[in-house]
Design goal:
Blueprint: E1 2-7, E2 12-19, E3 22-29, E4 32-34, E5 39-41, E6 44-48, H1 51-63
Antiparallel strand pairs: 1-2, 2-3, 3-6, 4-5
């Protein structure tokens, strides 16, 4: 089993686990409270557990203009 965890920010982490041909991607975010405004954001996470879902996510991310270049 291969597992890789990456801290995206102080509040977010992603874990990718590959076991044979099965791949699981899990993104987790800790709870957050803004004490100045009183807004509380609960902890959350989502998981993609199939290769086709991860491919679709990859394709969508590849379409984003992350560097501000215009087509």
């Amino acid at each position: 089993m291969n597992r890789q965890a990456i801290a995206l920010t102080d509040d977010q982490a992603v874990v990718v686990t590959q076991r044979g041909t099965a791949i699981t991607l899990n993104l987790t975010e800790v709870a957050y409270t803004d004490f100045e405004t009183g807004v509380h954001v609960p902890a959350s996470s989502f998981t993609i557990t199939n290769v086709e879902g991860i491919r679709q996510l990859r394709d969508l991310l590849n379409q984003l203009d992350l560097e501000g270049k215009k087509n």
